[in-house]
Design goal:
The chain is globular. By secondary structure, the chain is of the alpha/beta class. The chain has six helices and seven strands; from the N terminus they run βαβαβαβββααβα. α1 packs parallel to α6. The chain has a single domain, classed as Rossmann fold.
């Protein structure tokens, strides 16, 4: 049985290098013969604002219901996005807020600080671009967006194994270096990791 891979692009600009990375990963997956679904958050029709928090339910738009179905379906979830202000783009944050809801991705236990995780048995890879060297982001800032996505998002909902690929400084990348990264990301896709 082939691996089921969900590729999610969180960049709001389809002309970005992140979209080139998505295409490279996708070509690698297609070469491997694994099953692939793709979500381009910028193309979804949804309100990114979790208007009432968890106090009152906000009905999910059809695109978000489809996204939840794809998240359930996937064995491996790949996120491609830029690190902006030590976080993810606003549209991606809104997607996370609206999709990873109690009852779908997790459920707090009554009278407890603990919760049940509903997206178990899956793996994930974060492919992130940034305007600084990854070593600097780790050493000086302690990689806040990596921790938020890996530990406070993916692992919070049950995805245990989360690998991170950091690419930067993106604003200084020459064509040769970009081409090398496109090849590396295509190989990740081909290996389904």
């Amino acid at each position: 049985m082939s691996k089921k891979i969900l590729l999610i692009n969180g960049h709001p600009d389809e002309a970005s290098f992140n979209y080139g990375l998505s295409e490279a990963y996708k070509k690698g997956v297609e070469k491997s013969g694994a099953e692939l679904r793709e979500i381009k958050i910028r193309e979804l029709d949804f309100n990114p604002n979790l208007q009432f928090g968890y106090r009152k339910r906000t009905e999910l738009e059809p695109d978000l219901l489809d996204a939840q179905e794809s998240l359930k379906w996937a064995d491996h979830i790949v996120w491609i996005y830029p690190v902006w202000w030590g976080s993810v783009p606003a549209i991606m944050k809104g997607f996370l807020d609206r999709v990873l809801l109690p009852g779908f991705a997790f459920q707090k236990r009554e009278g407890s600080v603990w919760w049940d995780k509903f997206l178990t048995g899956k793996t994930s890879r974060l492919i992130c671009t940034m305007d600084q060297p990854p070593w600097y982001y780790a050493l000086i800032y302690s990689s806040p967006s990596h921790k938020a996505m890996k530990k406070l998002t993916m692992q919070f909902v049950g995805v245990k194994s989360v690998k991170i690929t950091s690419i930067g400084p993106i604003n200084l990348l020459k064509d040769k270096f970009r081409a090398k990264w496109l090849m590396k990301v295509a190989r990740l896709g081909e290996k389904n990791i």
